[in-house]
Fold this sequence. Notes:
Oligomer: single chain
Strand order of the largest sheet: 1-2
Structural class: mainly alpha
Number of helices: 6
Helix content: 40-55%
Low-confidence stretches: none
Distance between the termini: 16 Å
Amino acid sequence: SSSHDTILEHLDTTHGKDWRDRPLLFRGLWSKSELESSERHLSLSGLLKENLSIPYFIDATAPHALTPDAHGPTSDIVLNMTKGHMHKIGTQFLVQTSPELIREVVP
């Protein structure tokens, strides 16, 4: 069994088979330099290059925003965020769209 399979088995066992369908919060898994690495797809520079089409929140400050209200390319969403737009994306949407990214979510 590959380490990828082991990680998925662990997540299935620990969080249930539906863990990809709901948010999970992982804290302290990466250092600042690891998150900034240009080799990561889930870094700022990596997300600006991604063209995955995912659901997102147009205004993350809106009260009771529990369901994404828009859909678009990751690169456009993140670019808008760097310009001050209050968008929000969840890692689970990226992983659902592109499951191989789980390797960057769980070390």
